[in-house]
Design brief:
By secondary structure, this protein is of the alpha/beta class. The chain folds into 2 domains: about 160 residues, Aspartate Aminotransferase, domain 2; about 100 residues, Aspartate Aminotransferase, domain 1 (Alpha-Beta Complex). It is about 40% helix and about 15% strand. The protein is built from 10 helices and 9 strands. It has a 6-stranded mixed beta sheet with strand order 2-1-3-4-5-6, sandwiched between helices. A 3-stranded antiparallel beta sheet has the order 7-9-8, with helices on one face. Helix 8 packs parallel to helix 10. The model has no long low-confidence stretch (mean pLDDT about 95).
C-alpha cells in the first residue's frame, strides 16, 4: 500500500487495518509523484495499491490524479481514490475529480465517495470494474455485515443526484463565493493556502491564537472550526473555512470584515 501522507484519517485507519492483515504500508510525501515512483520501483510486491484523497480535507488542494494513474499503469498497481470533497462539486455536472481531470474510466481505479457532503444524506459508495465490485460484495465483511441503507435514504439520494446533475448554477455560485473570499482576505496577516475548492484553510500557526480566533468568530455568529495538531502538522494550526453554495455574498462579506477586525 502506498499512501499520501496527508490522506484523511479514515484512509490512515484503513492502512492500519491493511497492516494488521499482512500488507506493507509506505507513506509518500504529499503529492510527491517522484517519491512515489521511487517507492513503487523499489517494491517487489506482487500487488501494489496507491491510495489518495482526491481533494485533501485540510488543505483543499487536489491530488495529481493524471500522474498517479500514469504511475499505476506503469507499475501495474491499483489506484484507490477518495473523492469525498470532489463528488458533486468538481467536474462536468458535478461528477467529481476524475471528470475534473477528464480521466477515462479504468479497471485500475477504485473510486470512493461519501454521500454525507454534497449529496446531503448519509452513507458512501465505491465504484470500479464489475470484477472488483463482485469481489467486494462477496468478501468485504464491513459491507456484508452492515445493515443496508434505508429506503428513505435511497429516495433522498435519488433526488440529490438529480440536483447535482442539474446544479451547474449552484456550482457557479459556489466558485463565485470562493473567489470573493480569497480576494477579500488576501491582505490578512495569515496566509491562505492555495485552494480552488470549497475548503479554504487560513493558516494561523499558533494553537492558542487559532482557538481564540475561532471562539471570537463564534461569538459573532460565524462558525469556523479551529484545526490543530495532530490533525495537521505542528505549526500549521488553522481556521478551516468551508464555503457553500448556500452562503450569500453578505455572509462572505461578514466573515471577511470580522476577520479584518480581529486581525
Amino acid at each position: 500500500m502506498f499512501a499520501d501522507k496527508l490522506n484523511h484519517a479514515s484512509l490512515i485507519d484503513a492502512m492500519q487495518l491493511a497492516k494488521a492483515a499482512g500488507a506493507e504500508v509506505k507513506r509518500y510525501p504529499h503529492n510527491d509523484v517522484a517519491a512515489l515512483d521511487t517507492l513503487l520501483t523499489a517494491s517487489s510486491a506482487r500487488r501494489k495499491i496507491i491510495v489518495t484523497d482526491a481533494v485533501f480535507s485540510m488543505d483543499g488542494d487536489l491530488a495529481p490524479l493524471p500522474l498517479l494513474l500514469e504511475l499505476a499503469e506503469r507499475h501495474d498497481a491499483w489506484l484507490v481514490i477518495d473523492d469525498a470533497h470532489g463528488f458533486g462539486v468538481l467536474g462536468q455536472h458535478g461528477r467529481g475529480t476524475l471528470s475534473h481531470f477528464n480521466l477515462p474510466a479504468s479497471p485500475r481505479i477504485l473510486l470512493m465517495g461519501t454521500l454525507g457532503k454534497a449529496a446531503g444524506v448519509s452513507g458512501a459508495f465505491v465504484a470500479g470494474s464489475t470484477t472488483a465490485m463482485d469481489f467486494l460484495v462477496n468478501t468485504s465483511r464491513a459491507y456484508i455485515f452492515t445493515t443496508a441503507s434505508s429506503p428513505a435514504i435511497a429516495c433522498a439520494l435519488t433526488q440529490s443526484l438529480t440536483i447535482i446533475r442539474d446544479g451547474d448554477a449552484l456550482r457557479t455560485l459556489l466558485m463565485a463565493r470562493i473567489r470573493q473570499l480569497r480576494e477579500g482576505i488576501g491582505a490578512l496577516p495569515w496566509p491562505l493556502r492555495t485552494s480552488l475548492t470549497a475548503i479554504q484553510p487560513l493558516i494561523i500557526g499558533d494553537n492558542k491564537q487559532t482557538l481564540a480566533l475561532s471562539a471570537a468568530l463564534r461569538e459573532r455568529g460565524l462558525w469556523v472550526p479551529a484545526i490543530r495538531p495532530p490533525t495537521v502538522p505542528a505549526g500549521t494550526a488553522r481556521l478551516r473555512i468551508s464555503v457553500s453554495a448556500a452562503h450569500t455574498e453578505a455572509d462572505i462579506d461578514g466573515l471577511i470584515t470580522t476577520l479584518k477586525e480581529l486581525a
